[in-house]
Amino acid sequence: QLVESGGGSVQAGESLRLSCAASGYTYNRNCMAWFRQAPGKEREGVARIATGSGNTYYADSVKGRFTISQDNAKNTVYLQMNSLKPEGTAMYYCAAGNPSLYPDSWKVPREYDVWGQGTQVTVS
Length: 124
Known about the structure:
This protein is mainly β. The chain has strands spanning 2-5, 8-10, 16-22, 31-37, 44-50, 56-58, 66-71, 76-81, 90-97, 112-115, 119-123. Strand 7 and strand 8 (76-81) form a beta hairpin. It starts with a strand and ends with a strand.
């Protein structure tokens, strides 16, 4: 089970930190990721972290502004979002899985089998 928190409404340029608390059910997933979905759009991968190595990947649209991190002691993954833009308005979801080893597989929602309920981020 994954439980997201930290969403809210902010002005453009401001920051938010999202949290994703994971239960023991996700312990054998090697990848945690954040996705977002705006109304009328497909769900898109934002960032991912390998739970073992800590290796991270980001979507081009958020590179340099967003940071994904993990606290293994707390079984929690974070997404620090700085310099938020209005196009960042979306429901943000945390996901856990074992993505296949083809390029950019981490961005594909079907590669993840555990999802949180989402937390809304609104940037105006």
